[in-house]
Amino acid sequence: KQWYQRRVAITAGGLEGSANKIGVGIVRDGEVLSNPRRTYCAPTGHGFLPRHTAQHHRDNILKLVKQAIDEAGVSISDIDCVSYTRGPGMGAPLVSTAVVARTLAQLWNIPLMPVNHCIAHVEMGRQVTGADNPTVLYVSGGNTQVISYMNQRYMIFGETLDIAVGNALDRFARVLKLSNDPCPGYNIEQLAKQGKKFIELPYCVKGMDVSFSGLLSHIEGTAVKMLAAGDCTKADLCYSLQETVFAMLVEITERAMAHTRSKQVLVVGGVGCNLRLQEMLAVMAQERGASLCSTDDRYCIDNGAMIAHTGNLMFVHNMDTSIEKSGITQRFRTDEVHIAWRD
User: Fold this and answer.
1) Rounded to 5 degrees, what are φ and ψ at 37?
2) Nearest alpha carbon to residue 33 among 84, 63, 78
3) What is the CA radius of gyration of the chain?
4) What is the per-residue pLDDT across 125-174, written as a single tens digit (0 to 9) for each?
5) Residue 46 burial (CB < 10 Å; 0-12/13-18/19+)?
6) For residue range 83-96, what is the model confidence (pLDDT) as tens digits?
7) Contact partners, residue 148, CB within 8 Å, separation at least 6
8) What does residue 278 show for φ and ψ, rounded to 5 degrees?
9) What distance in Å separates the CA atoms of residue 105 and residue 99, rounded to the nearest whole number?
10) How buried is 108 (Cβ within 10 angstroms: 0-12 exposed, 13-18 middle, 19+ buried)?
11) Which pTM does this prediction carry?
12) What digits encode the pLDDT tens for the residues 295-329?
């Protein structure tokens, strides 16, 4: 603690590798100095398997560490701590990233910060947008949550009961044989802009929670038949799917805002890049006299800077871990983390 107090500014490194993105970021007291990343793209019609994704991360992570340091214009001695994604995420990619983080912490003789991936998305979103105490909609390939802060915890007001919204979109993209480059969700978004016919789909909101698996089974089962019969186009299906799942998400987000009397909504996670979702949230917020806070793909999509920034916050409050306890976990809930840096 005394060593930290002598420092004028804290420079943190962060390694993110919970899914198919591998990223390394360097952040100095909230300022992003560098944030390179690379993406593993599976063949069209397939998802990314853990072993292939982990191999991709191992092949690229050291190159990204060097690139991040060079782009940031810092030396190794300038870095005060190294952070890594402890979870949640896919086991093999998480392990590949954690091994490198442990190694760097020992080589550079600096503290090691185990970061919750979900918390990192929220804190990076707050930092970039300037949001004070927003209701958070966190939507990605692995997570779907409506979150609000209370008593040094990020409380989950609502979440998916089965699969995440991003996973539903990705899996439907496989049915349509859409490319995974740059990502299935982006390609669905572009195709949806051409849709002209709305097809009614199951709308599954249960209190503050949502369910996507039944909706996905329904559209998977009918899409091929409707396309073969000429009843609709791929664009119509993408448009209808987006409108339905996003309406579900906006509904539960608005209900959480009403409960907390929030005047800000922050959308984070990879699906948060979707401009149609942002548009729907903005309309809802405006009707409530509130505002939308959103970012672009630099920070919505998994990245190393969000891990570095959260590690920076943890470092200030002495939340480092020993090498012996620096494991990973595929299940690490948002509301498990003590948020020591907020009142």
Assistant:
1) -155, 165
2) 78
3) 20
4) 999 999 999 999 999 999 999 999 999 999 999 999 999 999 999 999 99
5) exposed
6) 999 999 999 999 99
7) 135, 136, 154, 155, 157, 256, 260, 262
8) -60, -40
9) 10
10) middle
11) 0.96
12) 999 999 999 999 999 999 999 999 999 999 999 99
Say if CB 239 and CB 192 are below 8 A apart. yes
Cα separation of 33 and 28, whole Å? 7
The single residue listed with the structure tokens 């190159």 is 63
CB atoms within 10 A of CB 11: 21
Q: How far is CA 96 from CA 190, 270, 309, 326, 332, in A?
A: 33, 22, 21, 13, 18
Instruction: State the DSSP code for 200.
Output: -
* Separation CA 69–CA 131 (nearest Å): 29
Confidence of residue 7 (pLDDT cuts 50, 70, 90): low
| Distance (Å, whole) CA 215 – CA 211 | 8
Residue 27 · residue 303 · CB < 8 Å? no
The C-alpha atoms of residue 185 and residue 190 are separated, in whole angstroms, by 9
DSSP 160: B
- For range 9-19, the mean pLDDT: 97
In this structure, are residues 208 and 161 in contact, taking their beta carbons and an 8 Å threshold?
no
- CA distance linking residue 115 with residue 151, whole number of Å: 19
Kindly report the average pLDDT of the chain as a whole number: 96
The stretch 88-111 carries a mean pLDDT of 98
Strand 144-150 to 153-159 pairing: antiparallel
Cβ contacts of residue 61 below 8 Å, gap of 6+?
15, 17, 22, 24, 96, 97, 100
Least Cα distance to 91 among 50, 146, 142 occurs for 50
What does the block give as tokens for 240? 């209808």
Scanning the structure block, which residue is given the tokens 């993209």? 173
Three-state secondary-structure class, residue 341: coil
Q: Is the pLDDT of residue 1 over 50?
A: no
CA 219, CA 217: separation in Å to the nearest integer? Answer: 6
Alpha-carbon distance of 262 to 203, in angstroms, equals: 26
